[in-house]
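Reopening this ticket.

The earlier resolution said the output was attached, but the attachment link was broken on my side. Pasting everything inline this time so it's all in one place.
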Amino acid sequence: MPDEDSKIDHYVLEYRKTNFEGPPRAKEDQPWMVIEGIKGTEYTLSGLRFDMKYMNFRVRACNKAVAGDFSEPVTLETRAFMFRLDASTCHQNLRVEELSVEWDATGGKVQDVKAREKDGKGRTASPANSPAR
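Inline output:
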């Protein structure tokens, strides 16, 4: 961090996506994305996607006349949380399939339950089968 009497005017942050952990390699596919004019020593980068596992970042300080050298690049991991919806315990109006979820306003599961009740295979009184779950 700069001293309070530092001549630093702003910072430049560059980042790019990569598929591997560690420092950037010589022939990198992705171009550096540039964010200029950062006034503080902290910056929140929004709009990142979890489609790539790693990202390289580097920063440099600038004064009104010249820009300094870039810092050593660091590699960060952008982890994604994977989850699945369970068709047997979801809301009665949701139709859950392998990779899709649809809202069924007619309540397809309610109709299935009513059909099972007519056949004598209805729900039990256990909390696991309650409509609120």
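Reporter confirms the inline version is readable. DSSP finds one helix and six strands in the chain. The radius of gyration is 27 Å.
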